[in-house]
Amino acid sequence: MQEIIGNIFDYELHENVALCIPTNSVIKQDGTAVMGAGLAKIVRDRYNGCDVVLGAIIEKKGAIVKQFWENPNLIAFPTKFDWKDDSSLELIEVSCKGLVDLQIKKNFDKIYLPKVGCGLGSLAWNIVKPILEKYFTEDIYIVVDLS
After folding, report:
1. Can you tell me the distance from the alpha carbon of 131 to that of 138, in angstroms, rounded to the nearest whole number?
2. What is the pTM of this model?
């Protein structure tokens, strides 16, 4: 795992890479995934319909790591069960395992994600980082946005 400074969207169109988006498991009455804040909201606004696709996945499979969009490759990385709650360390660990499995299956060259669980999830990076380091290799990048 490597930490880099930048904007995660600087990597979205690079060949054979994926961006991880922290998600929750809540679906609205219209079937769309709740993507109302943080990076999830930016993605929802940037890629029209991705909340519909993600909502259908959550409806069928629950809180799982799953590629839900192509071009760019976007991966749901569950950190919360409900958007109102703080992030769950247990769910982050399960998501780490799921991401490693997905990377093997899809053969992405690089995967970029933010400091999952640390923004709107209210967790401290010094608590989350060791969990990620336990699973992630050098082809997974934590993008630290200093803006």
Report:
1. 15
2. 0.93
